[in-house]
Design brief:
Strand content: 25-35%
CATH class of the largest domain: Alpha Beta
Order of helices and strands: HEEEHEHEEEE
CATH architecture of the largest domain: 2-Layer Sandwich
Strand order of the largest sheet: 3-2-1-4-5
Number of domains: 3
Distance between the termini: 75 Å
Number of helices: 3
Largest sheet: 5 strands, mixed
CATH topology of the largest domain: Nucleotidyltransferase, domain 5
Radius of gyration: 21 Å
Shape: globular
Number of strands: 8
Structural class: alpha/beta
Length: 134
């Protein structure tokens, strides 16, 4: 009985450690993976869905596994001053994160019912599919 209980506890501990290791590894950036930093029109900056201050941004990226070789895309969502975006990129560069790009909002396109449509992802409140005009 004691051996069976010890084996069960050891198996449970190993399973717990495995789950913790998998959870930690899933939150880290993989080599070559792009890190996306979102900047809203009101200046609020987020990384992986969490609000982060500009002071803490380099540390949060590094905690997630960003290295000097990690591509980082600053996604401007809405009307944002170019000065702010360049300031964020410069701050990351000063902390050794040099592969920084500033991009506009992303759009997705698909064919629905034989018609090409696109979803504008700039407005999180409502995603509408609108026909693409050629």
């Amino acid at each position: 009985m004691r051996n069976a209980m010890g084996s069960w506890l050891m198996a449970a501990a190993e399973l717990t450690l495995l789950c913790l290791a998998m959870a930690c590894s899933s939150t880290r950036l993989r080599p070559g993976e792009t890190a996306y930093v979102m900047v809203a029109g009101n200046g609020v900056t987020t990384f992986r869905g969490e609000i982060v201050t500009l002071t803490d941004l380099p540390l949060r990226l590094k905690e997630a596994g960003a290295t000097p070789r990690t591509p980082i895309k600053i996604v401007a969502q809405g009307e944002i001053s170019e000065r702010l975006l360049k300031s964020i990129a410069g701050g990351l560069g000063r902390h050794g994160l040099r592969r920084v790009m500033i991009v506009g909002p992303r759009e997705a396109a698909a064919v629905v019912g034989g018609e090409e449509v696109q979803a504008d992802t700039t407005d999180d409140a409502a995603e509408e599919l609108t026909p693409v005009e050629e």
